[in-house]
Amino acid sequence: MKAINIGICGLGTVGAGVVNVMQRNVASIAARAGREILITHIGARRDNPACDLGSTKISRDIFAVVNDPDVDIVVELIGGYEPALELVMQAIANGKHVVTANKALIAMHGNEIFAAADARGVSVLFEAAVAGGIPIIKAIREGLAANSIEWLAGIINGTGNYILTEMRDKGRQFDDVLVDAQQLGYAEADPTFDVEGIDAAHKLVILASLAFGMPLNFDACFTEGISAIAPQDVIFAGELGYRIKHLGIARKVEQGVEMRVHPTLIPQRRLIANVDGVMNAVLVKGDAVGPTLYYGAGAGAEPTASSVIADIVDVVRGIDAEPINRVPTLGVAQQALSTLPTLSISDINTAYYLRINVSDQPGVLSHVTQILSDAGISIEAVLQKEVVQQGVQSEQASRQVPIVLITSQTLESQFMAAVKNIEALDVVQESVHFIRVESLG
Ligand code: NAP
Fold first, then answer.
1. Ligand 1 pocket: which of 60, 78, 161 to mutate (most atoms <8 Å of CB)?
2. What DSSP character marks residue 148?
3. SS3 for 355-410, per residue?
4. Which domain covers residue 104, as residue numbers?
5. Residues 325, 430 share a domain
6. 291/313 same-domain check
7. Spatial separation of the C-alpha atoms in residues 308 and 195, rounded to whole Å
8. Active-site residue 138, yes or no?
């Protein structure tokens, strides 16, 4: 059988990882794929000392790879939107299969890429785009095919998880840990995508589309980062039996689909609450299988290469099959994609952790609980803390104490109206701090 030729565009961290793992495991990968796989052309602006390319053809122009008639599969590892989009579309137009690790590209342009690939009869696979080395896309698309998926929740950004873990374990401030994460190479020089949740939102949108068989819709994902988390919230959450994790949550409810990325209190007894440092995990709840948890390295040269090469093997296995007999890109055929509406954050139902700094006066707690009760929100737990800012002892009103509460589940719009009323109280001098709470039961 003819060997399959791979062209790699981009020879950075992941590109070098793919070259090295392919070289090391060449025989077992060929045995699994059913034929030989050769890296025949690499597009890279410069060499990467992390790998040895031997006599492999190298072009400084990545488009030379997608226009090479001998290349069967293009592996896009340059990242970003452009020229990655143009490169992938050109590869598809040239009749080449595509494997990519690029979550930003798939989340923002996946619909147009998949439509073009369908029309041309080629595959586009992107396992490495979500949770690095964890085969979560294959698990949802194939392993859980029998299930109606109810919800999924994932720690899908290692940088954010590292920062929250350090804040909890060492009582450190967000800004301080972020500098550390940058020095360790976990966070980019511009950490916005990681800490403001955009990277996690890219990944969540992909997972939601696979779980619910719907087109990608990045704009419908609510995104909130971790930069406003205070060390005291991490401590109070712990005292209440919770951990704060930056979760991506997708849930199918009667009215449609929720997609949201935000800091979340989860009970510390849940396995996923104990996923620490840069590790990733995704919890998926199917109606038949129940909850399933997938854990592993969410980034790094070889873990990510593991997913990229698994995709290459999948493409090779199906390369001679009629397109109709291949696994559909989003788990269901394009024409069967659902038109489920997506919900805005004000329409979600969840519980809340609140920290309200109030003047230390008698009866304040009852004012707060009355407002919540008037909004139909009950209280599940209360922490009454010591004075946090010592004023002059006799001036009781100048002293601030935090009231910490966990509420029952409520509609977010109703909750926000109650927060506004609480903030209007004379005894409340700053914004109410709140974090959503999920039981993940
Ligand atoms: P990286 O180390 O920055 O490597 C990207 C490579 O692409 C660099 O060598 C860069 O070359 C090259 N490149 C960029 N634009 C190019 C262009 N126009 N022409 C030629 N070469 C170009 O990035 P990475 O970490 O390997 O990430 C690659 C992809 O994998 C991204 O989509 C990323 O999101 C995804 N991913 C990465 C990880 C991870 O752990 N790193 C995990 C999961 C997914 P120069 O050096 O010359 O700029």
1. 78
2. P
3. EEEEECCCCHHHHHHHHHHHCCCCEEEEEECCCCECCCCCCHHHCEEEEEEEECCE
4. 4-133+301-336
5. no
6. no
7. 25
8. no
Q: Is 279 exposed, middle or buried (0-12, 13-18, 19+ CB in 10 A)?
A: buried
The tokens for 3 are 């060997």
Average pLDDT, the chain: 95
- Of 299, 301, 312, nearest to 16 (Cα)? 301
pLDDT band for 186, please (50, 70, 90 cuts): confident
Q: Which residues contact 33 (CB under 8 A, 6 or more apart)?
A: 4, 312, 313, 316, 317
409 falls within a domain: yes
User: End-to-end alpha-carbon separation of the chain, Å?
Assistant: 50
- The secondary structure of 87-115 as a DSSP string is HHHHHHHTT-EEEE--HHHHHHHHHHHHH
d(CA 53, CA 11): 10
What is the pLDDT at residue 395? 54
Query: Both 283 and 174 in a single domain?
Result: yes
Identity of the residue numbered 104: A
* 382-433 residue pLDDT tens: 998 765 554 444 455 568 899 999 999 999 999 999 999 999 999 998 999 9
CATH number of 315's domain: 3.40.50.720
* H or E element in which residue 56 lies: none
The single residue of 96, 103, 138, 203 carrying the catalytic annotation is 203
Question: Across residues 31-44, what is the average pLDDT?
Answer: 98
Ligand 1 binding site (Cβ under 6 Å of any ligand atom): 10-15, 44-46, 62, 77-79, 83, 101-103, 128, 132, 299-300, 304
Rounded CA-CA distance 439/441 in Å is: 5
The neighbouring-strand residues paired with 433 are 355
Residue 342 lies in a domain: no
State in Å: Cα 249 to ligand 1 middle: 27
